[in-house]
Amino acid sequence: MQVFEFVLAIIAMGMIFKLIKFAIAHNKLPRRDDALNQELVERLNQVEERVRVLERIVTDEKYDLKQQFKDLGT
């Protein structure tokens, strides 16, 4: 009986594999509007550039010195 169960398990795995492959092949999501994607990419690039500028300002030695003077003044 163990051989029969083994063969049945192999057949079931093969069918599950084919079912998953079929589902992946036929479940492609429709593409969104390319104009919207382009706008979002541009906005993301702008945000990344802003973050780079802020990182440059905060890591600058002059910024740290100005912050220390500001803390002393208050």
Folded structure, characterized:
This protein has helices at residues 2-26, 34-59, 61-73. The chain is mainly α. The chain has 3 helices and no strands. The relative contact order is 0.05. The model has no long low-confidence stretch (mean pLDDT 83). It has 2 domains: 1-30; 32-74. The chain is elongated and about 85 Å long.
Beta-strand proportion: under 5%
Number of domains: 2
What radius of gyration results from the CA coordinates? Answer: 29 Å
Summing up helix and strand content along with how strands pair, one would put the structural category as mainly alpha
Low-confidence stretches: none
Give a count of the beta strands, DSSP E runs of length 2 or more: 0
Topology order in helix (H) and strand (E) letters: HHH
Q: How widely separated are the two ends?
A: 85 Å
Name the assembly state: single chain
Mean pLDDT: 83
Number of helices: 3
Shape: elongated
Helix content: over 70%
How does the major sheet shape up?
A: none
List the helices and strands and how they pair.
Blueprint: H1 2-26, H2 34-59, H3 61-73
Q: Quick recap of the structure?
A:
86% of the residues lie in helices and 0% in strands. With 74 residues, it is mainly α.
